[in-house]
Design brief:
two-stranded parallel sheet; 16 strands; 8-stranded mixed β-sheet
């Protein structure tokens, strides 16, 4: 059974009482008590009057209308403009106390078109108080409040037309149609919310399963880490034990090789010394004399280009000549500079005669050939090139080079003996095993850190947002490709090529106090030119799909992204019950 509002008889379509009826009381109250309805306010009252016949007709229409509906309506007595929740403050047979407690007045001064209370609570159904508000019942739709200044202003603000009870405006009650449309919208939203909430329950269950798996995996890795640490230490000992004999064997081998090289160098040096003695002993008398040394300019010690007698004697140890035995003692003074007569001498660079140089200069100064000649020559060259394999041109032209002199120290060390090689192989195997176990330990450490990092995130009260971890979602606009990687970062990249710009890295949940999980904050992105670092706020709304809906830049370098996910869907209320809650009688 539908219920309608029935206003108390003392306040139904009350005709404003102005100067003719209330002048004495109004002026006295305005002057003595400083009421918000001042004398000027009171003098405006005549502008609100309607003719007596109009008021009488209005009274009659309301009374007839209420009489017709009285058979089907349950009357709830209260002054016009008062919500049912405040009905207890307006009892017709008792004095009215202003809701702010400032004063108490007779009840017949409620809705008398004169403002007695500072908070305007005595005029809920008139425009007398500038700070008053009028309650639109709007049966069948949502009740609402409007400023009292809109009462009887000729514009229909309440869908049930109750704000224009005395203006003569032709208003139509649209509450039923508005309620129907809202019902459809709410029904559709409720269906989406319901499906999203069911998906959320699945996400919560999956999150619990993942959490258990992660925890089990972490426990397993922790046990493996202990085993691997013990294994690494054991293999380290094996490695060090194997490397000690290897090191000793290598040192013995190297020492033997150095000794062998020293013997070889001594033999070669002795042979070179004997050869030099024979070359220097020009008269073959068995002695190398000062005069014979002077013939070798490379032995010059003072860099003047010649070997003086004094220099030669110095090289021979201060004597005029030496035999083979004595030459061995002075050989160290000579061998570093001595050049064997049997060694080939490199040809000196040939100077170009002045005449040939001038000819070359003249040829260079000739006029350059024309472009046509160059083009013809290039074509001829291309034809000639075809006669030869392409790969031939990759090879440098053959040149005859004198092989560099090989120093005896460059000789390769002989391979290790079998016993040493066995020790080397054993040590290398121990090193390989140790390094492999160390890599395995590092891998376990990395896996543990990743799992601990993931577990440490606040994924919501029931971890419903955990499925977003390690995922990325894109939105392509006409200019950019936006990428959101929850709990990681937000980026922007030009659609037709260019570098990526960081719009912020994960900061914290940034929703309102009642639910912080309705927004994400990403901070410390790429800095703007002469501006702050970029940041992004991601607003989350309920939806069946997980997707980025839109992006914008409300302020410079501050981005806003709309993101739908089932994780924020709440259990839906019954649409009919929510709509019924809008009716207030």
């Amino acid at each position: 059974m539908q219920q309608n509002v029935s206003y108390s008889s003392a306040n139904q379509a009350r005709t404003p009482q102005c100067a003719s009826a209330r002048s004495a009381r109004a002026l006295r109250i305005a002057k003595e008590e400083g009421s918000p309805s001042s004398e000027s306010r009171y003098l405006r009252c005549p502008h609100r009057l309607r003719s007596t016949s109009m008021m009488t007709s209005a009274h009659l229409l309301i009374i007839i209308g209420m009489a017709v509906s009285s058979a089907a309506a349950v009357e709830v007595q209260r002054p016009r403009g008062v919500p049912l929740s405040k009905r207890q403050f307006y009892e017709e047979n008792k004095p009215f106390t202003c809701l702010d407690g400032s004063r108490t007045i007779p009840f017949d001064r409620v809705n008398d078109d004169y403002c007695d209370c500072k908070d305007g609570s005595d005029e809920p159904g008139t425009a007398a108080c500038p700070n008053g508000s009028f309650h639109c019942t709007n049966a069948g739709f949502r009740p609402t409040f409007i400023p009292s200044s809109r009462i009887n202003d000729g514009i229909c603000d309440c869908c049930d037309t109750t704000d224009e009870y005395n203006s003569g405006a032709k208003c139509e009650n649209t509450c039923k149609e508005l309620g129907r449309k809202e019902h459809e919208v709410l029904q559709k939203m409720a269906e989406i919310t319901k499906e999203g909430f069911l998906l959320k329950q699945q996400l919560i269950q999956e999150a619990k399963n993942r959490q258990q798996e992660k925890q089990s995996k972490l426990t397993e890795l922790q046990n493996n880490k202990k085993e691997l640490e013990e294994k690494v230490e054991a293999l380290r000992t094996v490695k060090e034990t194997a490397e000690q004999p290897e090191k000793e064997a290598k040192e013995r081998h190297l020492k033997a090789w150095e000794e062998q090289k020293a013997v070889i160098r001594a033999e070669k040096d002795k042979a070179k010394m004997a050869e030099a003695f024979l070359e220097l002993d020009d008269d073959a008398d068995g002695f190398v004399a000062v005069a014979e040394l002077q013939t070798h300019a490379e032995l010059d010690t003072d860099a003047d280009g010649t070997v003086s007698e004094t220099e030669a004697q110095g090289l021979l140890g201060g004597v005029d000549h030496v035999d083979t035995a004595s030459f061995e003692k002075v050989w160290n003074n000579i061998k570093d500079k001595y050049v064997s007569e049997s060694q080939p001498v490199e040809p000196a660079p040939v100077d170009t005669p002045p005449e040939e140089s001038s000819k070359l200069a003249d040829s260079d100064s000739e006029q350059y050939p024309s472009d046509n000649d160059v083009q013809e020559e290039e074509e001829e060259d291309e034809e000639e090139d075809d006669d030869y394999p392409e790969e031939d041109f990759d090879k440098p032209p053959p040149t005859v080079k004198t092989p560099p002199k090989k120093d005896e120290d460059d000789e390769a060390m002989p391979p290790y003996d079998d016993e040493t090689q066995v020790l080397i192989d054993a040590a290398q195997k121990a090193r390989d095993n140790f390094e492999e176990s160390e890599r395995a330990l590092r891998d376990v450490d990395d896996q543990m850190k990743n799992i601990e990092k993931e577990i440490s995130f606040d994924f919501g009260p029931d971890a419903e947002f955990s499925y977003l971890y390690s995922q990325c979602y894109e939105l392509t606009t006409s200019e950019y490709i936006y990428k959101l990687c929850p709990f990681n970062r937000v980026s922007q990249k030009p659609k037709y090529g260019g570098s990526e710009t960081n719009l912020g890295t994960w900061g914290t949940w940034a929703g309102p106090e009642h639910n912080k999980y309705l927004a994400m904050k990403y901070e410390h992105g790429t800095g703007c030119w002469q501006g702050p670092n970029r940041s992004t706020t991601v607003k989350l709304t309920c939806g069946k799909e997980t997707t980025v809906m839109s992006t914008s830049e409300p302020s410079r370098c501050e981005y806003l992204m709309e993101f739908t996910t089932p994780a924020v869907c709440q259990e839906p209320e019954d649409v009919d019950s929510s709509l019924h809650g809008h009716d207030e009688f």
